[in-house]
Amino acid sequence: MAVSSNPKQGPLPAAIRKTMLALALATSPLIFLVRHVNAEEARIWMGEAQEGGAVLLYGMPQTDDVAVSFRCELPARDFIMTLSLDPDFDPKSGTVKLTVTAPPATDQLVVEADIQFLEEMELTFLEARPAFDAIARMLKQGTELKFTIGEKTFAYPLTGAAESMGPIEAACAKPT
User: Fold this and answer.
1) Torsional class of 120: left (φ above 0), alpha (ψ -120 to 50), beta (otherwise)
2) Cβ-based burial of 65 (10 A; exposed 0-12, middle 13-18, buried ≥19)
3) Is a pLDDT exceeding 70 seen at residue 27?
4) pLDDT at position 56 over 50
5) 99, exposed or middle or buried, with CB in 10 Å at 0-12, 13-18, 19+?
6) 3-state DSSP helix/strand/coil percent for the chain, to nearest 5?
7) What's the pLDDT tens digit per position in 113-143?
8) CA separation, residue 5 to residues 8, 29, 73 (Å)
9) CB–CB of 95/113 below 8 Å?
10) Is the pTM of this model over 0.85?
11) Calpha distance 96→105 (Å, rounded)
């Protein structure tokens, strides 16, 4: 039984409680939609040097929300790209062909990528090892970064990517 915090006021009548519950349930999908839109708008490109390498991330600062990440592991200069996928993405594992483009640049990069599903976190992600130079050109010249797996395409704006590349470029670019 619901109890009011005001001692002079009794519990809410059942009809009002049911109406409020129905209203909350009816609007809850809208709350989640607004949160998703705000997450999309709040994502930015962030570059950072770290012990043993550097990263370039597209996500929300100070959260676990990272849609795309690139990392360079030193001293070998291993360049690894990770793309977060919807937990319902199918297949949950295996190797797929991934096509990366960055319009209006005409470059197209096709690589094999491994899909993995972490059940305990309900996290599906794709990991690939593209050539750093090809990705760097796309990040600098494109307006959006597109990943295509079969019939599914994921696109992310590149606003701010070129300006955030300093740490990863210093770690992974071939010495001249």
Assistant:
1) alpha
2) middle
3) no
4) yes
5) middle
6) 30, 40, 30
7) 999 998 888 889 999 999 999 999 999 999 9
8) 9, 29, 57
9) yes
10) no
11) 24
Alpha-carbon distances, residue 44 vs 34, 54, 156 (angstroms): 18, 17, 10
What distance in Å separates the CA atoms of residue 116 and residue 151, rounded to the nearest whole number?
A: 19
Residue with tokens 């949160």, as numbered in its chain = 35
**Residue 174 banded pLDDT, cuts 50, 70, 90:** confident
Mean pLDDT of 7-31: 40
CA dist., res. 145 & res. 108, Å (int): 11
Q: If you average pLDDT over residues 88-94, what whole number do you get?
A: 88
Spatial CB neighbours of 156, under 8 Å, sequence gap ≥ 6: 43, 58, 67, 68, 144, 145, 146
Fold of 44-172: Immunoglobulin-like (2.60.40)
Is 72 in contact with 132 (CB distance < 8 Å)? yes
CA 117 from centroid of its chain's CA atoms: 15
Distance CA 77, CA 96 (A): 24
